[in-house]
Amino acid sequence: TPPDAVFASQNLVTIGVLRALHERGLYGTIPLVGFDDLALAELLTPGLTVMAQDPAGIGRLAARLLFTRMAGDTSPPQRHTVPTRLLVRGSGELPGPRTVRPGSADQALDSPRGDGPRGGG
Predict the structure, then answer these.
(1) Residue 90 pairs with which residues in a beta bridge?
(2) Which of 7, 53, 59, 119 has its CA at 20 to 30 Å from residue 42's CA atom?
(3) Peptide bond into 117 cis (omega under 30)
(4) Tens-place pLDDT, residues 61-98
(5) Could you give the dihedral angle defined by the CA atoms of residues 45, 28, 12 and 86, in that order, rounded to the nearest 10 degrees?
């Protein structure tokens, strides 16, 4: 069975997923979100929804940290978080609600009691 949705972690994976979905006639039926923006992402139909990074901002931060180290800074390594933006273009939209028959296997999967693999929380 096809997945409910796909999150591709980088551009090459996103391209591979796009190709596989197209080959199976599934593109546009399974929500797909890529990480990092592709130059042609908005030209697809539907457009590719992505989490976009700021490469220039990442470069500035890396250069600043490098120059600080080169100047003699010996402080312990630090963790930096660089903001991302969600660019909604259509491929990542979730399908509408589905009807679950009482007593079906799907009802067990979605059980709010937590006794199914997708239930609870």
Answers:
(1) 47
(2) 59
(3) no
(4) 999 999 999 999 999 999 999 899 999 988 887 666 55
(5) 80
43 within 8 A of 18, measured Cβ to Cβ = no
Determine the Cα–Cα distance for residues 105 and 114; give it in Å rounded to an integer. 14
What are the helix (H) ranges across the chain? 11-23, 55-70, 105-109
pTM confidence score: 0.65
Amino acid at the residue 26:
L
Distance CA(92)–CA(78), nearest Å, equals: 33
CB 53 within 8 A of CB 80: no
- Residue 86: strand pairing partners: 51
As a whole number, mean pLDDT of residues 20-46 equals: 86
SS3 70: helix
- H or E stretch at 87: strand 85-87
CA dihedral 103, 106, 110, 113 (to 10 degrees): 30
CA-to-CA distance for 30 and 28, rounded, in angstroms?
6
